[in-house]
From TrEMBL:
Entry function: Mannosyltransferase that operates in the biosynthetic pathway of dolichol-linked oligosaccharides, the glycan precursors employed in protein asparagine (N)-glycosylation. The assembly of dolichol-linked oligosaccharides begins on the cytosolic side of the endoplasmic reticulum membrane and finishes in its lumen. The sequential addition of sugars to dolichol pyrophosphate produces dolichol-linked oligosaccharides containing fourteen sugars, including two GlcNAcs, nine mannoses and three glucoses.
Molecular functions (GO terms): dol-P-Man:Man(7)GlcNAc(2)-PP-Dol alpha-1,6-mannosyltransferase activity
Enzyme Commission designation: 2.4.1.-
InterPro entries (alphabetical): GPI_mannosylTrfase (IPR005599)
Protein name from the UniProt record: Mannosyltransferase
Length: 493
């Protein structure tokens, strides 16, 4: 089963190898640790610090763990982009170790059949497997949350306290709302005494805060506790709402159903058939409810509850399968439960297809480095949308001069990498390559279409600043779902 988990993780990674803007700090930090070492002056975060500071502890851990493989590949002259795949795979392995640890603890508590079905259900769903290789603060925290939950189920309070403390104090403070509930359960049930909490919890907190203060202050070159600043900015000041807000119950009617897919319908059944799962499920649901108060919402913020909710679904699957031979009705119920996994896989296939086309910036920069320009040192301008949709330091596999400049004289650049809403100053341009991505689902407006640009060149001296457009050229029913598209262009001046 562990092999299947690894295979599912690798499939998601290879189909979607690029990263997006939310992952930029951690992916650039891993690159800098690997390729610049102690030469901090070359680190990306000093030039592009981002809105809030993040800890280096996660990137350093993954970079160190993956460094032997990366240095071997560099020696064998593999592309630097391969290194991005390796560091992401390493992160995924860390998460899988946490998941297997949690699953083994569930198996000891609820039976090996529940453990098996838990892993099968996780493999069939899209979002968890998609996210576990993405270098987000939430995913670094996810490793620790899974280890903490495994320790909790086994009664290993020291592991629970250290892993929970690291997840909260270093990576995501909002996990206090989740792991804090479990701590209170253990205290009020007297499975954990206040004396033991103070004996192990206080030294753990002091050590972990000291660790992030020392490492991050050195790398940020000022006294800093990154996660404390993130908490103040996002929660106290509520500045995260500047990146969009969603309704209070969005996690319940949108995020969780998309994560669980058809397995969602088995969760209530599992709670009924196996009441002992409730002590695991209720804190997860209360965490989501409390976290819903924050107006800015993203699916990755609650990714920690997906394995826990799937425990209830796995209990239902295990009970239905074990009782399949008792009657014809129970056989039908068992078959239906198994078939829901196929429905999950269909949903996963759709999500994977759409996600594959959603990184035009990464595809564009790889295209331009494979073009005729690859034989010379070029100056490259990358606009904001491309920088947000796949471009990282790992994708720079050729010598490139000026990049990521916000205000530029376009005549200075050989290739330009721009999106369709980029407005040009008057100059003559021609298209080198076009990459596409999906922007929104629109079943009424678009038929399945293969798209191409409707021009080869245009003299913009005749126009005021112009917005470039595209046309649909041919139908390809096998390649595209009915989805609206947006386009990223590589343009040579």
């Amino acid at each position: 089963m562990e092999t299947l988990l690894f295979a599912a993780m690798v499939i998601h990674l290879m189909i979607c190898p690029y990263t997006k803007v939310e992952e930029s700090f951690n992916v650039q930090a891993m690159h800098d640790v690997l390729y610049h070492g102690v030469n901090i002056s070359q680190y990306d975060h000093l030039e592009f610090p981002g809105v809030v500071p993040r800890t280096f502890i996660g990137p350093i851990t993954i970079a160190v763990a993956s460094s032997p493989f990366i240095y071997l590949l560099d020696y064998m002259q593999f592309s630097k982009f391969t290194s991005q795949i390796i560091v992401r795979m390493t992160l995924g392995i860390f998460v899988l170790i946490g998941l297997i640890t949690f699953g083994n603890a569930v198996g000891e508590k609820l039976g090996t059949g529940v453990r098996k079905w838990l892993f099968i259900i996780m493999i069939s769903q899209f979002h968890f497997m998609f996210y576990i290789t993405r270098p987000l603060p939430n995913i670094f925290a996810l490793v620790l949350v899974l280890l903490a939950l495994g320790g909790w189920l086994r009664g290993q309070h020291i592991r629970f306290l250290w892993c929970s403390g690291a997840a909260i104090l270093i990576f995501r403070t909002e996990l206090t709302l989740y792991l804090g509930q479990i701590l209170l359960i253990e205290l009020f049930s007297k499975r954990l005494s206040f004396k033991k909490l103070l004996t192990y919890g206080v030294p753990a907190a002091v050590t972990l805060i000291g660790l992030t203060l020392c490492i991050d202050s050195y790398l940020w070159q000022r006294l800093i506790w990154p996660e404390a600043e993130v908490f103040w900015y996002n929660t106290v000041l509520n500045k995260s709402s500047q990146w969009g807000t969603l309704p209070f119950f969005w996690y319940f009617y949108s995020a969780i159903p998309r994560c669980l897919l058809l397995s969602l319908f088995l969760v209530p059944l599992g709670l009924i058939l196996t009441p002992s799962t409730r002590i695991m499920i209720y804190p997860a649901l209360i965490f989501v409810l409390l976290f819903s108060i924050l107006p800015h919402k993203e699916l990755r913020f609650i990714i920690y509850v997906v394995p826990v909710l799937n425990v209830a679904a796995a209990c239902a699957m295990s009970r239905l399968w074990n009782n399949r031979n008792k009657s014809a009705l129970r056989m039908l119920l068992a078959i239906g439960a198994v078939l829901h996994l196929l429905g999950n896989l269909v949903g996963t296939g759709v999500f994977l297809t759409v996600s594959h086309y959603n990184y035009p910036g990464g595809e564009a920069i790889m295209l331009i480095q494979k073009s005729q320009l690859s034989t010379s040192n070029v100056n490259l301008h990358i606009d904001v949308k491309n920088a947000q949709t796949g471009i990282s330091r790992f994708t720079q596999i050729l010598p490139i001069g000026n990049i990521l400049i916000s205000r530029v004289d376009l005549h200075r650049f050989s290739p330009l990498e721009v999106s369709t809403d980029f407005r040009f100053s008057p100059l003559e341009v021609s298209t080198l390559e076009v990459s596409t991505c999906f922007s929104s689902l629109d079943l009424h407006r678009f038929s399945p279409l293969e798209v191409s640009t409707c021009f080869s060149s245009v003299d913009l001296h005749r126009f005021s600043p112009l917005e470039v457009s595209t046309c649909f050229s041919s139908v390809d029913l096998h390649r595209f779902s009915p989805i609206g598209s947006k386009y990223m262009f590589l343009i040579s001046s």
